[in-house]
Design brief:
306 residues, Multidrug efflux transporter AcrB transmembrane fold, 2 domains, four-stranded antiparallel β-sheet, 10 helices, 65% helix
């Protein structure tokens, strides 16, 4: 199936500079957002603490819930809606563990009993992660992302050439930074499901990049006398139909998960949604054009040596 004509010749390389400017702006926005907010926002999985999910029979005011739990010594707690508004569910996050506050869920249950009535709410989930476990999970989660990037570099280096691997890794790093920036701007916490989504984005993005790289290698053999920028442009245009169809169908599924999957996977789906869009963009405008920059740097280096 092809929605795009085979003879299309959009000048991707000619517009690469504009794409790089856009990428720099997005990366700067991501960096500023995380700096202003004191770094990435970590969920209970990574920061440690206690998470309590409460469902009410009717919609409640978040400020009222905060006011009620202020009766307990929870100076570092937060309350936010969870899932669809019609579900009337709220998450109470506390940066203390059950070891610090014995019977915490029972205390909250008692104070809600007094304020709302026992029949008006249900404590659906209580999760606790110790600070040492959270720090260990955080370290291992980010190491998993870094190891996946290095693994991709080695594979592409072995499968194609080192310069293809460098372009792919820079594009993947670009995708991860912008995705984390989107999470920061949306005030979403990074936890284990988010790390799983980021790793999924890395795998998805590198798949697109490998398809384009394979076509570039084939066309360089057939068009040896042509300039590299022309070969890359032709290769991207030849794979454009496949890229758009794959990304569009993937995005349909992810959008469905985002709107209808429920609160538990809402942030996971949001991460995938951003990652699919950014990954498709980078495989076209970032990874392949970086080959031209790499060859130019090599050429300039050889010229200086002479």
């Amino acid at each position: 199936m092809q929605f795009i004509k085979q003879d299309i010749n959009f000048d991707f390389i000619g517009n690469a500079r504009l794409a790089w400017i856009l990428s720099v702006v997005l990366i700067l926005i991501s960096a500023v957002s995380m700096i202003v907010k004191g770094g990435p926002k970590y969920g209970i999985d990574f920061a440690g603490g206690t998470l309590i999910q409460v469902q009410f029979t009717k919609q409640m005011d978040v400020e009222k819930i905060r006011e009620i739990i202020s009766g307990i010594d929870l100076s570092s707690s937060s309350v936010q809606p969870f899932g669809d508004k019609t579900e009337n569910e709220y998450l109470i996050s506390i940066n203390k563990t059950a070891e610090d506050l014995q019977g915490l869920s029972e205390k909250i249950k008692d104070i809600f009993d007094e304020s709302f009535g026992a029949e008006t709410f249900e404590i659906r989930r209580v999760e606790m992660v110790g600070p040492k476990v959270g720090a260990d999970l955080r370290q291992k989660g980010f190491m998993a992302v870094i190891c996946s990037l290095l693994g991709m570099l080695v594979y592409i280096w072995w499968r194609f050439e080192f310069k293809f691997g460098v372009g792919a890794i820079l594009a993947l790093t670009h995708d991860v930074i912008i995705t984390l920036g989107a999470l920061s701007l949306a005030n979403k916490a990074i936890d284990l499901p988010i790390i799983a989504a980021v790793l999924t984005v890395v795998g998805y993005s590198v798949n697109d990049t490998i398809i384009v790289s394979d076509r570039i290698r084939e066309n360089r053999r057939r068009m040896g006398r042509e300039k590299l920028d022309k070969v890359i442009n032709i290769s991207i245009n030849q794979t454009l139909s496949r890229t758009i169809i794959t990304s569009f169908t993937t995005l349909l599924v992810v959008v469905a998960l985002f709107f209808f999957g429920g609160g538990v996977i809402h942030d996971f789906a949001f991460t995938l949604m951003v990652g699919v869009v950014v990954g498709t963009y980078s495989s076209i405008f970032i990874a392949s054009p970086l080959l031209i920059l790499w060859e130019k740097l090599l050429h300039d280096s050889k010229s200086h040596r002479k």
